[in-house]
Design a protein that fits this description.
Layout lengths: L19 H30 L5 H14 L1 H11 L6 H19 L5 H19 L2 H6 L10
Helix pairs in contact: 1-2, 1-3, 1-5, 3-4, 4-5
Length: 147
């Protein structure tokens, strides 16, 4: 760095340690992303190598789940890096997970325990994401508080 260059001023996003709530929210989002990716890859491999009822539908499901996994994974990375934009995709992911969990709970199968876990993870992540400490750590200001 030359003498003419000055380091960037420390912003609210980089000031102080990252709150544990923000780290936990990022970990839950990453966990959901990894689960979606694993499910997508499993459906894709099963669709290609197995004997599904409809091969095209299985492959499409696998690709769709793998692409959907990008949203929570990118949000988790953004949360860990304390980027304000990352809270939106993380909240959207949790809001999309709640109806899926509800439908899993209504099933008469092994999906019931998975629905319970998914619902608990989504609700916990939502609480962590809207927490004031998380909002402040991400540098998000409420309405009417712009400087």
């Amino acid at each position: 760095m030359s003498s003419d260059q000055k380091p960037a001023p420390e912003s609210a996003e980089t000031a102080g340690p990252r709150p544990r709530r923000l780290t936990y929210a990022a970990l839950l989002a990453a966990l959901e992303g990894v689960a979606l990716l694993a499910g997508g890859l499993w459906a894709l491999v099963l669709g290609i190598t197995g004997h599904p009822d409809d091969r095209q539908q299985a492959v499409t499901l696998g690709i769709t789940l793998a692409v959907f996994a990008l949203l929570p994974l990118l949000a988790a990375r953004g949360l860990l890096l304390r980027r304000g934009w990352s809270r939106g995709p993380a909240v959207i992911t949790q809001l999309m997970a709640l109806p899926v969990a509800y439908n899993m709970l209504k099933a008469d199968s092994v999906a019931i325990p998975a629905g319970i876990v998914l619902g608990a993870v989504a609700a916990t992540a939502l609480v962590l994401l809207v927490n004031p400490a998380t909002t402040q750590a991400l540098g998000i200001r409420g309405p009417g508080r712009a400087e």
